[in-house]
Amino acid sequence: MKVLGIETSCDETGVAVYQEGTGIVWEALYSQIALHREYGGVVPELASRDHVRRLAPMVERALAEAGAPDAVAWTAGPGLIGALLVGASLGTAFAAARALPALAVNHLEGHLLAPLMGEDAPEFPFVVLLVSGGHTLLVEARALGAYRLLGTTLDDAAGEAFDKTASLLGLPYPGGPELARLAATGRAGGFDLPRPLLNRPGCDFSFSGLKTAVLYAARKQDGGDDGWRADLARDFEEAVVEVLCEKSRRALEATGHGELVVAGGVAANARLREGLGRMAERQGVRVIFPAPGLCTDNGAMIAHAGWRRLAAGERPQPAKVRARWPLDELQSPGK
Ligand code: KG4
Ligand code: ZN
Fold first, then answer.
1. Does 335 map to a domain?
2. Interaxial angle between packed helices 227-255 and 175-183, expressed in degrees from 0 to 180 and rounded to the nearest 10
3. Relative to the CA of 295, which ligand 1 atom is closest?
4. DSSP character for 114?
5. pLDDT of residue 224
6. In-domain check, residue 233
7. Mutation probe of ligand 1 site: the residue of 296, 325, 327 with most atoms within 8 A of C-beta
8. CB atoms within 10 A of CB 143
């Protein structure tokens, strides 16, 4: 079975073909970063319009280069409604025209299952730390479609905290990778930043206070030597990483599972990878990071998740997009 995957939930147009037994046989990604940069964040209407421009030619190329698919999987949420509608319309219309099954995929499930495409894939049950621009979740993945929420953010997502803090430090959008680059040149320990919710039990997160602490620390600096920016970026990164590592440790301890999968855009962060690697070693568990290209939004994770569900007997549902679609509302195929 060959599945065409379509991702348009935010500011990336992703198209890919996933083939059973082989893996990803074709993929293309168009990022709208340049389009949104001058506004300092994603402008939903511009995002939708750009998906309209990019998506059909990408699907045409996929067909020409990877051949006709047997099914179509498209992202139905969570995400920006207008952007989701572009992928939903094209995906369902294409499938209808060719009498193929069309499957609505949850974007978060796409992220969460992405590591299963890799070489040292985890096996259910495992714990997932999903850290992206829109989400910060600790999830117990028991089986395909059976997810239990262990913790989430009470305010900003981890990626959002990176982006907002980067913007405070005068870095361009999206700030996560920029801030990480700046932090690599800074010294740690100069600023006393909070570790939100670390002293409270449980696996929930909060990042907005940290961002405010960075704002106040930045205000106290007076021009002159600019080195403090890198130092502050470094301390911010340390604080986020420490919190993410400790909450992941608790999630592993609470469930007793031996594998931690890290997904979402922030999983590309080198210091987070280091920190989680150290924590996993101490705990005697395995931590699995998908290849960076599979961590951020892409079409392959949608094609792959769609294939898993179809292969497990899931029947296509009527097309519907959802701005909010929590993971724990999902069900296992056939249930
Ligand atoms: O998963 P993703 O591509 O999109 C969402 O579904 O949100 O994640 C994007 C987020 C952005 O907030 C971006 O700043 C962050 O991931 N990010 C990083 C790094 N690379 C991407 N944050 C910290 N360090 C990085 N190296
Ligand atoms: Zn995402």
1. no
2. 110
3. 1
4. G
5. 64
6. yes
7. 296
8. 11
CA distances from 60 to 6, 64, 96 (A): 12, 6, 16
Query: pTM value?
Result: 0.93
Q: Are 195 and 239 in contact (CB under 8 A)?
A: yes
Closest listed ligand to the CA of 12 = 1
Quick one: what percent of the chain has pLDDT higher than 70? 99
Is the domain of 179 the same as that of 265? yes
Tell me which residues have their CB closer than 6 angstroms to ligand 1: 10, 132-134, 159, 162-163, 174-177, 180, 264-266, 268-269, 296-297
- Position 223 scores a pLDDT of 66
Check whether residue 174 and residue 242 sit in a common domain. Answer: yes
268 lies in some domain: yes
| Any domain includes 208 | yes
Nearest alpha carbon, ligand 1 atom 13: 176
pLDDT of residue 40: 87
Closest residue by Cα to atom 14, ligand 1, is: 176
Domain that holds residue 245: 122-289
Beta bridge partner(s), residue 129: 138, 262
Structural domains in the chain (count): 2
Distance from residue 152's CA to the centre of ligand 2 (Å): 15
Beta-bridge partner residues of 136: 131
Of all ligands present, the nearest one to the C-alpha of 244 is 1
Do 209 and 275 belong together in one domain?
A: yes
58-107 pLDDT, tens digit per residue, is 999 999 999 999 999 999 999 999 999 999 999 999 999 999 999 999 99
* Closest approach atom of ligand 1 to CA 133: 7
Q: Ligand 2 (ion): which residues have CB within 5 A?
A: 132, 297
What is the percent of the chain where pLDDT is above 90?
89
Are 140 and 278 within one domain? yes
Q: Which of 178, 240, 266, 273 to mutate to test the pocket of ligand 1 (most atoms within 8 A of CB)?
A: 266
The reply to whether 324 and 236 lie within a common domain is no
Q: What is the mean pLDDT of residues 298-319?
A: 94
Rg (CA), the chain: 20
Q: Are residues 9 and 91 in the same domain?
A: yes
